[in-house]
Amino acid sequence: MMKRELADIALKTAKSLGATYTDIRICTYRQQSIAARDLILSSGMIGGFGQGRNVDSVSSGFGIRVMVNGAWGFASSSHITPEEIKRAAALAVEVGKASALAREKPVKLVSVPAYQDHWQTPIQKDPFKIPREKKVELLLEINRRLLKHKHIVRATSFMSFAHESKYFASSEGSYIEQDIYRADTDYTVVAFRNGKVKTRTFSVPPLNMGYEYIEKAPLLENIDRTAEEAIEHTLASPCPEGRKDLILTPSHTCLLIHESLAHPTELDRAVGYEANYAGTSFVTTDKLGKLQWGSKLMNVVADNTNPILRMSSGYDDDGTKKQRYHLIKEGVFVDYQTSRETAPYIGAKSSRGCVYASSWANFPILRNTNVGIEPGPPGDPTPEEIIADTKDGILIDGLGSFSIDHQRYNLQFGGNAFWEIKNGEKTRMLSDVTYQAINTELWNSLDAVGCKESWEPQGIPACAKGQPIVNGDQSHPAPWIRFHQIKVGVAKL
Fold first, then answer.
1. For the chain, does the N or the C end have fewer beta carbons within 10 angstroms?
2. In which domain, by residue range, is 413 found?
3. Which residues pair with 413 in a beta bridge?
4. Are residues 206 and 138 in the same domain?
């Protein structure tokens, strides 16, 4: 049967049993991850954030949400047949009726237009049609070249691809089909010298693209630099303790954005939904439109319309059209990331389209999206000019450790590589750098935002939220930025 016919069975069945709202997602998820360690393929988890296992997988199924007596019900199955859809729809209604017995107040959904549409990530080359052998050959060649460098004792590399095929239908008249493609790659070297072990990672921004993403990535061009910086890192001096100006590259800022800006602006956290897992938010609803979160140079945008960014698509899993809007404007907190269910908590008449489920078996929840910092206007500084304007600072590049409290207020971050800046010049490499701050104090110390040419769409390839866990892939674009006089010290285990 056609997907629309199957969807209509779910909508009709649930309505006949008392549901006031129903939606169904019929999905197929395909993933391919290839990893190499030294000169062999690896079966272990070697990529950042749990990526990198050698996997080729396909998963298909459907999930049905219903609203009954002001409460949610949900059921799913991997058997996409008319009979199974009828059974799951009836089960979802039963769950909804049971949930209604324990609810404190009825769930209210803001309205959404009905859409009939097909949306696809614009790709040039389907990554799943490219021979696996070609991908393996590239990864092994990267590792081979890295291992030629003296003092490099390990090289790991990986690439991954995903395709989400999703069909969404709702009792409000939407029938939406989407095909979303994602790609990611990086490599890491381990240097051993003078009894010290240090790593260096080269990564390009994970994006929604086809295999052209790999072909355009400057992987081979950065091999020598990456290896040499890993070796230099083994000779680096420990971070001096005190206060320094911090210059952050986009590959580091993406993690800072993710933890200190993107998660706190999820409205479900602000109203307490996530108190049992991964925390709440200090940015409570009474601060909306009032909190001076950062300096006037700080402009933070949620952009889910740029098709190459990781969480972009045409519509979210509520059936809401994706949008671009400010969360923070000239340092002032002006909006949240919302769903149809949470929007009423701030009096909003519509959702910001931030609902996502990473599997047909997951109940869709509010996930932080493509939150990023806008670059400065024409004439704002280049990375070289930011460095030249810094008297006593540290340059931080790449992802590293982080620690942040349950309200996202107190934070500590590290990176992958660090350099001392003295009198406008990049001098020696440092090691074991961490910086600590209060969220709002850090962002109010923002005193330089780089030009458009320094902007990169870096991101986080996997972020867990919810119980059961719903993974998300977010882009967090940013230009080069600088903070004034932040506390730094040596990372301690």
1. C
2. 238-490
3. 402, 435
4. yes
Q: Are residues 354 and 417 in the same domain?
A: yes
Among the listed residues 82, 96, 107, the one whose alpha carbon sits nearest the alpha carbon of residue 26: 82
Q: Cα separation of 157 and 117, whole Å?
A: 38
Q: Is the predicted pLDDT of residue 292 greater than 70, yes or no?
A: yes
Write down the pLDDT at residue 41. Answer: 84
Q: What percent of the chain lies above the pLDDT cut of 90?
A: 91
Quote the CA–CA distance of 47 and 345 in Å, as a whole number. 39
Domain match, 199 and 262 both: no
Q: What is the pLDDT of residue 492?
A: 58
Q: Rg (Cα) of the chain, in Å, rounded?
A: 24
Q: Is 137 helix (H, G, I), strand (E, B) or coil?
A: helix
* DSSP states along 28-82: EEEEEEEEEETTEE--S--SGGG----EEEEEEEEEEEEEETTEEEEEEES--SH
The DSSP symbol for 344 reads: G
The string of DSSP codes covering 468-493 is TTEEEEEE--B--EEEEEEEEEE---
Instruction: Determine which helix (DSSP H) or strand (DSSP E) holds 88, and give its type and residue range.
Output: helix 82-100
- Extract the tokens encoding 419: 């350099």
pLDDT tens-place string over residues 301-323: 999 999 999 999 999 999 999 99
Mean pLDDT of the 412-441 span? 97
Q: Are 189 and 150 in contact (CB under 8 A)?
A: no
Give the pLDDT score at 50: 38
Last residue of some domain: 235, 262, 282?
A: 235
Distance of alpha carbon 490 from alpha carbon 493, whole angstroms: 10
Instruction: For residues 376 and 359, state if they share a domain.
Output: yes
Residues 47-93: tens digit of each pLDDT: 443 344 578 999 999 999 999 999 999 999 999 999 999 999 999 99
The CATH number given to whatever domain includes residue 203 is: 3.30.2290.10
Q: Are residues 149 and 49 in the same domain?
A: yes
The per-residue pLDDT for range 347-395, each reduced to its tens digit, is: 999 999 999 999 999 999 999 999 999 998 888 999 999 999 999 999 9
463 burial type by CB count under 10 A (0-12 exposed, 13-18 middle, 19+ buried): buried
Q: Which residues pair with 64 in a beta bridge?
A: 24, 75
User: For the packed helices 82-100 and 3-16, what is the interaxial angle rounded to 10 degrees?
Assistant: 40
Q: Does one domain contain both 68 and 94?
A: yes
- Which of 211, 235, 259 is the C-terminal boundary of a domain? 235
Residues 272 and 167 reside in one and the same domain:
no
